[in-house]
């Protein structure tokens, strides 16, 4: 928990962290790789060697600069809760360097630095069967308790919004990962969210759900071919990438159970955990192979 | 059942496949009713069939909410009824109705599959909201005041979001910074600019320095031709005060170099000596002392101050009323004049202290020292 606290403090001093990030080229080699990451570290080291002997001859300094640029770009996107797309990185940061191995190396190092310096996980989201999607989301690695105690910067309004998101996610989860928008709105009506009227807390709440939360990737919106009774096109909402990364299916299930005054069934919890773990491992393997 | 579906896909081939249906009907144990071709095409029978289809479709729609419940198998029953009806279908119109029926039940089937829970514990959405509502609005009698904040704090703790950072300098720029490269370019340009600028600056002060030297030489020349003269008469230029001062200045240089000598002469050679003191200063040509004279102390360096102001000038104007100046008036080029504050070089011509090997006079143009030595 000591290392946890130091990363808490570094999250709290993010500005100086950025500067620190640029001046630490040697620390990567000294890092103790965890058993899971060991294979990845050795392969990335091999990659870095091959990159330095490639015909492009990118200097160490340039590599460090690229890593810093990726970090900066990612942080800029993250402020607006935009996911970080690989293609955007290629366009804006890498520009002339098209070498895939180099990009892979830089992204690998970025992941390490984010973890070391910020305590963030630079995670690639999985889209269904495709384990690598070229989309990254930053996730806070500090555990919930410490996070709330030391570094939580969310306002009351943020918390209210998050409750709304949580309720929607809960409903999606109960309904087997998809829910029609008219059912959703029907139920939300029971919580004081009336269609077409401004809510005292959320204001234009429908827009908030349909646009903002969708754009932030907490929920996903799909059109169905069905038409509702009123003739409007129906949407179906499902779990968004960011919700999977930031919250996780297990926590959503637990929240639901808690609302019913119950505890999450341990067997079920374990099942979901194992599923998520397996997913993550497959994804790391896939992203490694991809590079 | 599978053959049934095959048939439905091709309504065009229905008439051909009539016989197939009939064959399969014979195969199925449940249905032992046999239809022959003629019966099937009977209009009244067909009308009846269509009626049954319509009823079936309507009732299915009505039961929809019941049918989509995962636990219910009502859909299967409905499907079986539909199957039975289809056996009587021989024309396209009824076939189309069957198709409509099939479309409906497939939709219901889809809905039902969606609702089948893969999770262990099956919760209900409606109940979920009910519980949430209780938590947010404990006193249901009150007007709809929902407390989003308290429960929000609990929900918020589950979000592993990165802290949102607001910098005082403004939001983070998504574009990479390009400072370093540009700085280098700018510097290179600056160097070139400075170089070109440097060479075009002319230094008038330096030129003036050279001019002073020539003027001193000039004064020396004039003194040379006179050998000896009254000091003030020598420097006096009745037309210009400034020229007089300059003459004094140049003479002082000569004295410093030892090329001129000043003395007070009791016997004044000036013809118009007034009631002022009988001794008047003279200036005469001299030989400059050598280095050796300074070291064996035969020659000494001395200083004195000469005061010269406008009043003095006016006095001289009275004393020497006519005659041209001994040292001729020099033309001054106004463009060469640079105000002392603007000059960039450090050679100053405004104050100079001169040392004379002999003599008591130190020339300081425009000096206001009290120590005057008339």
Overview of the structural elements:
- The complex is a heterodimer of chains A (291) and B (374).
- Chain A is built from 14 helices and 6 strands.
- With 291 residues, chain A is mainly alpha-helical.
- In chain A, the strands form 2 sheets. A 3-stranded antiparallel β-sheet of chain A has the order 1-3-2. In chain A, strands 4-6-5 form a 3-stranded antiparallel β-sheet.
- Chain A starts with a helix and ends with a helix.
- Chain B has 15 helices and 3 strands.
- A 3-stranded antiparallel β-sheet of chain B has the order 1-3-2.
- Classes of the chains: A mainly alpha (291), B mainly alpha (374).
- At the A-B interface, helix 5, strand 3, helix 8, helix 9 and helix 10 of A face helix 7, helix 8 and helix 9 of B.
Provide a concise account of the structure shown.
With 291 residues, chain A is mainly alpha-helical. Helix content of chain A is 62%, strand content 11%.
What value does the Rg of chain B take, in angstroms?
A: 63 Å
Helix proportion of residues of chain B, in percent?
Answer: 40-55%
- Kindly state the number of beta strands of chain B: 3
What is the chain-wise order of helices and strands of chain A? HHHHHEHHEEHHEHHEEHHH
State the separation between the terminal residues of chain B, measured CA to CA. Answer: 143 Å
Mind summarizing the main beta sheet of chain A? 3 strands, antiparallel
* Structural category of chain A: mainly alpha
Shape of chain B: rod-shaped
Q: Please identify the oligomeric state.
A: heterodimer
Low-confidence stretches of chain B: 268-277, 345-374
Shape of chain A: globular
The pLDDT mean of chain A sits at 79
**Terminus-to-terminus distance of chain A:** 34 Å
């Amino acid at each position: 928990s000591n290392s946890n606290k130091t990363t808490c403090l570094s999250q709290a001093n993010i500005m100086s962290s950025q500067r620190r990030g640029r001046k630490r080229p040697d620390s990567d080699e000294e890092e103790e790789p965890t058993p899971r990451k060991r294979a990845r570290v050795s392969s990335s080291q091999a990659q870095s060697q091959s990159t330095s002997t490639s015909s492009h001859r990118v200097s160490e300094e340039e590599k460090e600069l690229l890593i810093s640029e990726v970090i900066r770009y990612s942080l800029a996107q993250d402020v607006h809760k935009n996911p970080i797309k690989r293609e955007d990185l290629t366009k804006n940061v890498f520009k002339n360097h098209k070498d895939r191995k180099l990009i892979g190396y830089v992204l690998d190092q970025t992941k390490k630095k984010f973890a070391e310096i910020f305590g963030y996980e630079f995670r690639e989201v999985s889209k269904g069967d495709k384990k690598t999607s070229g989309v990254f989301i930053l996730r806070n690695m500090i555990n919930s308790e410490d996070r709330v105690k030391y570094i939580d910067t969310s306002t009351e309004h943020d918390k209210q919004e998050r409750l709304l998101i949580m309720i929607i996610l809960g409903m999606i989860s109960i309904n087997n990962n998809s829910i029609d928008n008219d059912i959703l709105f029907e139920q939300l009506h029971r919580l004081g969210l009336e269609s077409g009227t401004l809510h005292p807390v959320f204001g234009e709440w429908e827009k908030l759900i349909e646009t903002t939360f969708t754009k932030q990737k907490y929920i996903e919106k799909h059109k169905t071919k069905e038409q509702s009774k009123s003739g409007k096109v129906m949407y179906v909402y499902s779990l968004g990438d960011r919700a999977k990364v930031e919250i996780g299916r297990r926590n959503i299930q637990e929240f639901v159970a808690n609302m019913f005054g119950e505890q999450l069934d341990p067997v079920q919890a374990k099942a979901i955990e194992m599923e998520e773990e397996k997913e993550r491992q497959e994804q790391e393997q896939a992203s490694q192979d991809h590079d | 059942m599978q053959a049934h579906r095959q048939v439905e896909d091709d309504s065009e081939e229905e008439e051909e496949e009539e016989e197939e249906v009939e064959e399969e009907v014979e195969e199925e144990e449940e249905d032992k009713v046999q239809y022959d071709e003629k019966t099937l095409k009977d209009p009244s029978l067909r009308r009846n069939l269509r009626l049954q289809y319509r009823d079936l479709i309507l009732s299915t729609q009505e039961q929809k909410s019941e049918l989509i419940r995962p636990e219910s198998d009502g859909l299967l029953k409905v499907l079986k009824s539909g199957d039975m009806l289809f056996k009587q279908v021989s024309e396209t119109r009824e076939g189309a109705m069957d198709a409509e029926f099939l479309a409906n039940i497939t939709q219901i089937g889809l809905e039902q599959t969606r609702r089948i829970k893969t999770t262990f514990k099956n919760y209900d959405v409606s109940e979920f909201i009910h519980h949430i509502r209780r938590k947010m609005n404990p006193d249901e009698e009150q007007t709809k005041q929902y407390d989003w904040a308290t429960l929000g704090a609990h929900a918020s703790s589950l979000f592993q979001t990165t802290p949102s950072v607001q910098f005082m300098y403004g939001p983070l720029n998504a574009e990479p910074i390009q400072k370093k490269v540009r700085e280098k370019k700018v510097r290179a340009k600056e160097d070139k600019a400075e170089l070109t600028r440097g060479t075009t600056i002319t230094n008038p002060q330096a030129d003036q320095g050279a001019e002073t030297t020539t003027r001193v030489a000039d004064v020396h020349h004039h003194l040379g031709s006179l050998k000896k003269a009254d000091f003030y008469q020598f420097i006096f230029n009745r037309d210009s005060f400034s020229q007089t001062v300059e003459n004094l200045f140049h003479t002082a240089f000569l004295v410093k170099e030892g090329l001129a000598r000043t003395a007070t002469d009791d016997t004044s050679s000036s013809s118009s000596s007034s009631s002022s003191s009988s001794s008047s200063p003279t200036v005469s040509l001299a030989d400059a002392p050598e280095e050796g004279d300074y070291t064996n102390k035969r020659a000494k360096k001395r200083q004195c101050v000469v005061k010269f102001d406008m009043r003095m000038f006016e006095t001289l104007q009275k004393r020497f009323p006519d005659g041209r100046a001994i040292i001729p008036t020099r033309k001054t080029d106004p463009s060469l004049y640079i105000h002392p504050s603007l000059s960039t070089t450090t050679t100053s011509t405004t104050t100079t202290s001169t040392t004379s090997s002999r003599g008591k006079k130190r020339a300081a143009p425009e000096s206001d020292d009290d120590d005057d030595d008339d």
